[in-house]
From TrEMBL:
<dbReference type="GO" id="GO:0005783">
    <property type="term" value="C:endoplasmic reticulum"/>
</dbReference>
<keyword id="KW-0812">Transmembrane</keyword>
<feature type="transmembrane region" description="Helical">
    <location>
        <begin position="41"/>
        <end position="60"/>
    </location>
</feature>
<dbReference type="GO" id="GO:0000139">
    <property type="term" value="C:Golgi membrane"/>
</dbReference>
<comment type="function">
    <text>Involved in the retrieval of endoplasmic reticulum membrane proteins from the early Golgi compartment.</text>
</comment>
<dbReference type="GO" id="GO:0006890">
    <property type="term" value="P:retrograde vesicle-mediated transport, Golgi to endoplasmic reticulum"/>
</dbReference>
<dbReference type="Pfam" id="PF03248">
    <property type="entry name" value="Rer1"/>
</dbReference>
<protein>
    <recommendedName>
        <fullName>Protein RER1</fullName>
    </recommendedName>
</protein>
<keyword id="KW-1133">Transmembrane helix</keyword>
<feature type="transmembrane region" description="Helical">
    <location>
        <begin position="66"/>
        <end position="83"/>
    </location>
</feature>
<dbReference type="GO" id="GO:0006621">
    <property type="term" value="P:protein retention in ER lumen"/>
</dbReference>
<keyword id="KW-0472">Membrane</keyword>
<feature type="transmembrane region" description="Helical">
    <location>
        <begin position="145"/>
        <end position="162"/>
    </location>
</feature>
<dbReference type="InterPro" id="IPR004932">
    <property type="entry name" value="Rer1"/>
</dbReference>
<comment type="similarity">
    <text>Belongs to the RER1 family.</text>
</comment>
Amino acid sequence: MSEGDSIGESVHGKPSVIYRFFSRLGQIYQSWLDKSTPYTAVRWVVTLGLSFIYMIRVYLLQGWYIVTYALGIYHLNLFIAFLSPKVDPSLMEDSDDGPSLPTRQNEEFRPFIRRLPEFKFWHSATKGILVAMACTFFEAFNVPVFWPILVMYFIMLFCITMKRQIKHMIKYRYIPFTHGKRKYKGKEDVGKTFAS
């Protein structure tokens, strides 16, 4: 292997200008992602705003319905992964070599761990909207389709998929949402204070 054959290196062994530029761009992007991590509500409001802008754009242009359908399928896939446990209990049913969700009252409590964490769900959903928005600038993606059929098919697909997911939740007794930290009540203080 000669000098300069590795990726991103110039002939003199130093990183090339293009490699340094994209490396720095990646660092800035990751820095902004890291800073946005604690602001869950703000992140989702921005994503919903982008989604609303995308829907207005598709409505005004009267096209790109197949791109919108693909975006809907992608978001449905992300949502199902968000609702699913990291370790599928149906696969763990036959073997006893690993953790499983508690199915009886006397079993140990194990928290619900998602297959797709919330941050990755948000990040992928936002990237999907931005890619779909970019596709609306190219006429090649404007495939003529009868959009009411796509809407009906998406609704049917959503209902069938969610029905299957809800049955899975009921069968293996897990709820993918938590409503905050559990609060335990201690013994009430029945003693009286003495005034001196």
